[in-house]
């Protein structure tokens, strides 16, 4: 049975990925920082679909989080066939007025950990001549967005990076895909602190 690792698996798009992949009989590794939500989702999917679900509780905004996740997966002896780099967040407002630490956390989560995980898990996929990586970008990656300047830039990075990886690996048995959703039913707008009139 194949295994998928999903970051940001406790809410929004991550939960939908988990449900859909479990329904397709993939075993799952769910990664996020909310233990309660992950364990509740894992129990539900195991009962409903009879698949094995492993929970890794990790704050992905911490430097080196990707390596910590990779090492944990290796220690458990699990082979990852599909990596879904979904974790991320936005922050609404004029850049000059935003908290710099929060902007840097966004870059860490939206870009650095995505690159880390892609690098660590791509190598064994290539060695086994098979696998796939889905990087969750956004329609925001196609144009600059004032008041979402760092977020849009991080998603442009994800899009460019994913397209480059696709070209490098398209003939090697590993599929690379950038997913570019628009507004979705999630807590994105609350986390990004959008004005209530925009929600």
TrEMBL record:
InterPro entries: NAD(P)-bd_dom_sf, SDR_fam. It holds the Pfam family adh_short. Transmembrane segments: none annotated. The keyword Cell inner membrane does not apply. GO terms for molecular function: oxidoreductase activity. Keywords: Oxidoreductase. Belongs to the short-chain dehydrogenases/reductases (SDR) family. PANTHER family: ALCOHOL DEHYDROGENASE (PTHR42901). This is SDR family oxidoreductase.
């Amino acid at each position: 049975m194949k295994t998928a690792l999903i970051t940001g698996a406790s809410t929004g798009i991550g939960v939908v990925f988990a449900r859909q992949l479990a329904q397709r009989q993939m075993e799952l590794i769910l990664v996020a920082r909310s233990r309660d939500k992950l364990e509740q989702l894992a129990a539900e999917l195991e009962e409903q679909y009879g698949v094995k679900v492993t929970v890794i509780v990790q704050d992905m905004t911490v430097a080196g989080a990707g390596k910590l996740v990779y090492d944990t997966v290796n220690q458990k002896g699990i082979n990852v066939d599909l990596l879904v780099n979904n974790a991320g967040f936005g922050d609404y407002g004029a850049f000059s007025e935003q908290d710099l630490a929060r902007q840097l956390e966004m870059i860490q989560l939206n870009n650095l950990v995505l690159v880390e995980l892609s690098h660590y898990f791509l190598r064994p996929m290539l060695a086994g001549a098979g696998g796939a990586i889905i990087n969750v970008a956004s329609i925001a990656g196609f144009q600059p967005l004032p008041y979402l300047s760092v977020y849009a830039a991080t998603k442009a990075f994800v899009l460019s990076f994913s397209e480059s990886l696709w070209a490098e690996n398209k003939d090697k048995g590993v599929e690379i895909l950038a997913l570019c959703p628009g507004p979705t039913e999630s807590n994105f707008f609350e986390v990004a602190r959008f004005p209530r009139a925009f929600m």
